Amino acid sequence: MSRPLRLLILGGTSEASALVAALAPRRDITPVLSLAGRTRNPKPAAVATRIGGFGGVDGLRDYLVHERIDAIVDATHPFAERISANALEACANERRPLLVFTRAPWPQKDGDRWIEVEDIEAAVAALGIERRVVFLTQGRLQLAAFARAPQHRYIVRAIDRPDAFNALADAKLILARGPFALIDEERLMREEGVEYLVSKNSGGASTYAKIEAARRLGAKVVMLRRPEAPGAESVTGLDAALDWIEAHRPPP
Ligand code: NAP
Fold first, then answer.
1. Whose CA is nearest to atom 22 of ligand 1?
2. Fewest 10 Å CB contacts: which of 18, 149, 190, 233?
């Protein structure tokens, strides 16, 4: 019998939660879930959890060594560029196997009215100079940029109250945690008179309903393109992630 595999899961996504749920009952794998600490009350996980940054690449390297981590699954959000780059570098330096467990981006479908943009400044510009009702779902860290376009009315949805919310002149805050059902997204967008939705192209099922609702209502979507994926081995399904973990057990 080989010893249990010590697996570090970089989380904060539904992929990480699904992996944790699949691994929690296993005795032959000892996972540690790592969260950045952005959400004030994260959902409790069924495995050991650490919260907070590692302290850059060097901090992550130290963590891998001191915690005797055998393998790492980077299941962070596709827009979490820094931690993924750090994981790639730390794993290369410490010769630890790394898997990126992610989701495919959403494709644009018939009836979608997307304006694809590279960054948040371009997203603000894409809303134009006329007053619009804009539903902001791109995340609270990029909220402040919209204060530079005070002509719009903003509907902001976030898990916790964003620090930059008060900087928006005309805005409504909705505190909620997904997943959201299509019927609710459609009702919300219709009641608020949403003309533009701002979203990252996150991919995955849990936040797709707003994209479908925008299509049904004829609303435009300002879609932030994904940053380039890190150059590590990557899978998009839970089974493939579990197969990879199986193949990286420590030798007996
Ligand atoms: P980021 O810009 O790539 O990372 C910034 C720093 O936060 C990293 O350098 C690292 O600090 C720390 N960090 C990030 N993820 C971590 C993790 N899972 N465990 C420990 N430290 C972590 O990340 P972000 O875009 O702010 O995202 C933060 C977290 O929220 C991620 O876990 C991500 O999965 C989740 N999330 C992000 C988005 C998004 O749109 N970006 C959406 C949903 C969920 P040190 O350098 O000190 O190690």
1. 36
2. 233
